[in-house]
Amino acid sequence: xxxxxxxxxxxxxxxxxxxxxxxxxxxxxxxxxxxxxxxxxxxxxxxxxxxxxxxxxxxxxxxxxxxxxxxxxxxxxxxxxxxxxxxxxxxxxxxxxxxxxxxxxxxxxxxxxxxxxxxxxxxxxxxxx
Amino acid sequence: xxxxxxxxxxxxxxxxxxxxxxxxxxxxxxxxxxxxxxxxxxxxxxxxxxxxxxxxxxxxxxxxxxxxxxxxxxxxxxxxxxxxxxxxxxxxxxxxxxxxxxxxxxxxxxxxxxxxxxxxxxxxxxxxx
Lengths: 129, 129
What we know:
With 129 residues, the first copy, chain A, is mainly β. Chain A has one helix spanning 6-10; strands at residues 2-5, 15-18, 21-27, 36-42, 47-50, 56-63, 66-70, 76-79, 83-86, 93-97, 101-108. Chain A has one domain: Sandwich (Jelly Rolls). In chain A, a hairpin with a 5-residue loop joins β7 and β8 (76-79). The interface between A and B is large, with 38 and 38 residues.
């Protein structure tokens, strides 16, 4: 059994950040769960184009408000507490925070822990997988 | 891209309940994400012995307070907002809610959607997997 807290993760090298967001990775590939689990904070006003070509991701909004734009269709979906989106088709998207948003994120395959988005908005594939 | 809300899931057959808990399954096996994602509410005073022999599960506490007892060691760990536990060893445990707790749960392999705990505290294996 693994027990971890957000407070501890935020104070450790499990926390990564980049302009507009930071993410505390509570579970990573090494934990052997077959997915990774992150609590990610999106800053108010952030506008983040992303494209996880190598991962499927689900995101559940715990707090805050914003939107996600599906770049395949142009549709914009509101995000509020209780909204979940899942990028089942590795969907290219833009995430926007109207306020600060706290999100529970699951990645399959799990991320290894030190990825940041590359120039295409993707996380690199895990070559060791 | 899949968009779902907790409110809609709770009002649909994605919601299942049993004494002491209810769970809204926002992602199930059919969604093809390789995991399932549930928002589970544990009632105040609930005491739930569980043993997921066929699934690994991580649980993140969004709100409320309680504890988890690891039956292999006898250790009891407090659960508060921001605490995560992961049953990486299919750990037998007892979950207790001091208050109502709202938890974000991830299962690997994904559950199919209509499981309830059997007499051993497990979800049955997905024979079609």
